[in-house]
Amino acid sequence: MTNHYAEIRITASEIDLQVWLWLFHKLQDDDKIIEIVEESKPYANRGESKLYRVYIKANLISGE
Questions:
Q1: Distance from the CA of 64 to the CA of which of 26, 32, 43, 46 falls in 20 to 30 A?
Q2: Which CB contacts under 8 angstroms, 24+ apart, belong to 10-18?
């Protein structure tokens, strides 16, 4: 089995960010496709932006 590591930054509106985080957790918990190694709390972008960001460190789990 091979693991492929990535550091991912997700930037989205607060609601869309929750959808993306749900998907990442589903890929980990239900589908066993990824392993989330670390997840930051949501940070508001600077200035007048209405976007938030989250940083995720994850392994993509492959059956190779």
A1: 26
A2: 10/53, 10/54, 10/55, 10/56, 11/45, 11/51, 11/52, 11/53, 12/51, 12/52, 13/50, 13/51, 13/52, 14/42, 14/50, 14/52, 17/42, 17/52, 17/53, 17/54
Does the pTM of the predicted model rise above 0.70?
yes
pLDDT digits (tens, 9 = 90+) for 21-41: 999 999 999 989 999 999 999
Q: Tell me the residue range of the domain where 54 lies.
A: 2-62
